Structures are given as structure tokens and as C-alpha cells.
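#lab-general

N.A. 3:47 PM
ok so I finally got the sequence cleaned up, no stray characters, all 346 residues accounted for. can someone with queue access submit it? mine expired

B.Y. 3:52 PM
send it over

N.A. 3:53 PM
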Amino acid sequence: MSQAVAAPGTRRLGRQSVAFARPPVILGTGAVVGPMENQGPLAGSFDHAYPDLLAGQESFEQAEREMMLNACRTALQKAGVTPDQVDFFLAGDLLNQLITSSFTAAELGIPYLGIYGACATSAQGLALAAMLIDGGYARRVLVACSSHNGTAERQYRYPVEYGSQRKPYAQWTVTGAGAAVVASPDLGSGPRITHATLGKVMDLGIKDPYNQGAAMAPAAADTIRQHLLDLGCRPEDYDLIATGDLARFGKEMAAELLARDGGLDLGDRHVDCGMLIYDLDRQKVHAGGSGCACSAVVTYGHLLRRMAAGELRRLLLVATGALLSPTSCQQGDSIPAVAHGVVIER
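B.Y. 4:20 PM
back already:
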């Protein structure tokens, strides 16, 4: 593999990427899901699966909070650390004012930064955590994100109880949460975060809040293309390139954009977390999965297990996020999107 080298005195590579001088490691992860997710092809890959959407709570919002807290505590336990040994907690979700993340932070008592990248939050959190550690500002960082089908539908579209008709290209918001403890390499061993590529906001003019795959595909294609350019590498340098939640139609569109604008063919090494988590033929999820938890639980609950088993050596995770709000949609605005990438190596 021919790879670009950062100029002396900087960790920057090209226009949008960074290389970590001492790549931080992922010490422990937690992946918890709801009932639909544990009935899909990845059943058994997760640390905990709840039998219903309420997860023993009184509301969907409280259930999402329970799931994030569970994922965080699981990651901490697997990493062998306590909350007081963690320097920062970076977390995000899809709800207004990041209420899931903020209430979880109150429980954990770790200095907290709320982050928002919509469904790209998983990769954004990993990239920021690695920057904090490689820059010498932290030794251990806990990152987390979550989503819930009931909370997201209520906020962005219609409450699930409404039973609205869904379009074929609509996606099913993943119920679950993922968390990871990222640490300085001298504190333990685990998969290394070696590079990150931060994406630009792209806007194709899509206004349908159900058609998120089409809204996010240009951002995914642009970040993948820029990542390969910045690092001077090729698609075949990766065992897998996993996009976050483009689902069936968005994945096809991203492939077309990469071929048209960059002459790139990712082939079978391109997988999409929104297509991996559900059985698109058996489960009624239409185009596939979406939500902050989608890429997080697939990565922490499935892809990193494959890496630990020696099946994967080098993974490029490109999480994608649709940056819409209920207000912007109601006012007829389009849906901008962003995609962030991180390289995880065994």
C-alpha cells in the first residue's frame, strides 16, 4: 500500500484527513439493541438485547436513555476501567437538545461534551476521541451514541402508534446504543484508530424526510473519494469499507456517484450497516436501517468481532448523517448531509 505521510510538524493529510502519530486503541465496546435488531442476521452479535421497545421504562425516551447507559457501562466493564478513570465523555443522539446523552452523562459523572452528527455521530465521536488522545489532552475517552425507533419517528415524522404508510425507500430507525472506550496505546491493546477523514456538508436538494439514503449518498461518496485521495490509497487497501446507513437505495446511489465522479469501484468490499443489521427480505424495514445506533452497534457488535477473529485487518468506517430537523422539513428546506470516516486496524 502506498500511503501519504503527514508533513513534519503536522498530523494533517491532504485536505480533510489526519494521521495519528500514536494511534489510540479501542479498549472495550458495548452494543445493545432492541427486539427488531436481534431478530436480524446479526442476532447474537450484541452484548444485550431488550425484548421490547420500552426496555422496562415508562417511555421510549427513557428506554433510549437506559440503552445508552447500558452500552456505556458495558464498554467500561470490558475495558476494565471505572468512570473516574475516564477523562471525557463524548456522546450524541437524535433527540432535541441531546437529552439521551445529557441524562446519561449525569449518571456517569464524567466531564461531558455533547456532539451531533446525526447518524454520522459514531465515526465523529471516534475521530474526536482519537484527536484528544493523540494530541495529549486525554488518556481515556468514552464515546457513545444512540437512537430509538419510537423516539425518532415521534420527533421527525409520525408517532409509531399513528401507523402511517411508509414508502419503499424509507428506512427503519435502529433501536439501540453503542459505546467505546478509546485510550492511549500505552494503556492497553485493541483495534487501533489510525486515521480520520472529516466530511463536508453536501446538499443534493432532497426534501423528503423519508428519503435519507439519497440525501446522504453524496456525502458518503465525497468523503470516501477524499479519504483515498488524502491518504494516497486505493479501495483494495481495505478489507471492508462500511458506510453507516445508506441502506439499499443510498448504497446504490453512492456507488454510482463514486464511479461517475472518481472512476472508483468499491466492489464487494463495500458494505452498508443499514443493510447488514436487518434481513431486508424477511423483516419489514423497507430499504434498511438508519439512526445513530445503526453504524455503532454493527461496528462494535459485529465488525470488531470479525476483526478480533482475524477475519478483518483494516476497516474504513464511513458513518453518514442527514442533518435535518422537524422545523427545517416543515418549512420546506432540503436535507443537508455529512459523512465522517475513521480507519480501524487490527
